[in-house]
Amino acid sequence: MANTFNPILQNLELKPLSPSNPSPSPRPGRVIVLAGKNQPLLVIRHGEGGAPTRGQLMLGKYNRFYEIDMTEQHFNFDELLQSNDNISAFRAAINFSCRVRDPALIVEHNVTDALRVIRPLVGEAMAEIAIRYSIEQLDRVRQEMRRINLTRTTHSGFSVSHLSFNLTLTKEAERIANAGAMQRLEHRNAIEQVRRENEIKDERARRTIRVIKGGVEDMVAEHLANNPNDMLNVAKMFYEQRQKEQELFKIAAEIEDPHIRELMIERLTGKPMAELTSGAVPNNDQTDDDIIVEDEGDMPDDFRRD
Fold first, then answer.
1. Phi/psi class of residue 71: alpha, beta or left (left: φ > 0; alpha: ψ in -120 to 50)?
2. Taking CA 165 as the corner, what is the angle to CA 153 and CA 167, rounded to the nearest 5 degrees?
3. pTM of the prediction?
4. What is the C-alpha to C-alpha distance for residues 109 and 282, in angstroms, rounded to an integer?
5. Nearest 10 degrees: Cα torsion 218, 220, 224, 229
6. How confident is the model at residue 133 (pLDDT cuts 50, 70, 90)?
7. Residue 294 above 50 pLDDT?
8. What are phi and psi of 72, to 5 degrees?
9. In whole angstroms, what is the distance from residue 267 CA to residue 263 CA?
10. What is the pLDDT of residues 155-201, one digit of tens each?
11. How far apart are CA 161 and CA 92, in angstroms?
C-alpha cells in the first residue's frame, strides 16, 4: 500500500512546430490536460472526442501537457488524536482509498502529493470527534468516527471511496485508563461494602424491632439462632421472664380502677380483654369485678375464679 501518490504522471512542455510533442490521446485510466496562455484548461478523457491533433498542438495554442492518473489509490497512515483531558490520546491506524475527481483542479493547484492534501482533512475530522471524549469512552469514539462524512475528508480534486481505521490507546493512555479502571473498581467495592454493612445494620434493627414487638418467645428464638448451644441460659432467661410476668399480674390484680387493670392485663397477655372475656354471660347487675370468664387459659392464677 503506497504512502504517497503523485497524480500527475507527466508534466511536459509543448513546443511549437515540434514533431516530438506527445500524443493528446489518453490511455485507459488516464486523462490528458492541456494548458495554454490565456486559455482555459482542456481536459481530454479516454474514449471521448474533442482532442486536438498533433498538428494542432504544433500551432502553439497550448504550451503544457499533463497526464493525470485517474485510477484508485490506497493509503495508510497513523494519527495521534487528543482526548478531552489534554493529556492522553487515541491512536488511529487509518486506511483509505481515493481517486482524482477533478483533473483540471489537480493541474491548477499543481498537486503532486495526494496524501499531503488529504491526510490533514481526514485527521481533522477524526480529531474533532476524539477531543470530545475521554479515553474510557473508546467504543463511543469508534462509533462516532464510523459516521464521518467522506465528503468532508476530501480535497476538491479528489474523492475518497473508502475510509477505515483501527482505533486504540497509546501506551500512556492505556496506563492511565488501567489506573482509572482500578480506582473505579476500588470505589465500587467501597460503595458495595458500605451497602452490605448498612443492610446488616438494617437487618439487625429489624430483628430488634421484631423481638421488642414479639416478646419473650421471639427473644428466645433470636438468642437460640445466634447461640444454638446455650439452652441452659435460655431456660433461665425464660423462667426469669415468667417470674416477672407473674409479679406484674399480681400488681395488676391489686389495681382498683378496672380500666387500668384491663389495660395491664392486655399488655401482659398480648390479647385484648374482649377476647379473654369471650363467652361471658352479660348481666346488667354485674360489676367489673364480677366478669365471668369461661376460658381462663390465658389468665394468670391471681385472676382465676374459684
1. beta
2. 120
3. 0.53
4. 118
5. -170
6. very high
7. no
8. -75, 135
9. 6
10. 788 988 888 999 988 888 778 766 655 666 566 666 777 778 778 87
11. 19
| CATH code of the region 75-170 | 3.30.479.30
In this model, does residue 293 exceed pLDDT 80? no
pLDDT of amino acid 276: 55
Helix residue ranges, H only, the chain: 54-58, 103-108, 114-130, 138-145, 171-214, 216-226, 231-253, 258-269, 273-276
Distances (CA, A) of 88 to 29, 37, 119, 168, 175: 44, 53, 22, 12, 10
Helix axes 231-253, 216-226, angle to 10 degrees: 170
Long-range contacts formed by 207-211: CB under 8 A, 24+ apart: none
Would you state the cell numbers that stand for residue 259, as one nine-digit string? 380500666
> Do β-strands 39-45 and 30-36 pair in parallel, antiparallel, or remain unpaired?
antiparallel
Residue 2 to residue 243: CA distance in whole angstroms: 100
Contact present, 263 and 238 (Cβ < 8 Å): no
Q: pLDDT (tens digit, 9 = 90+) per residue, 20-57?
A: 777 778 889 999 999 988 888 999 998 776 677 766 66
- With pLDDT > 70 as the criterion, what percentage of the chain qualifies? 67
Q: What's the rounded mean pLDDT across residues 1-25?
A: 81
Residue 22: partners with Cβ closer than 8 Å, 6 or more residues away:
10, 12, 65, 67
Task: Domain ranges for the chain, please list them.
Answer: 8-69, 75-170, 238-303
Give me the half-sphere count of Cα atoms (radius 13 Å) on the Cβ side of residue 88. Answer: 22
Check if the beta carbon of residue 109 is closer than 8 Å to that of residue 35: no
Beta pairing class for 8-13 and 39-45: unpaired
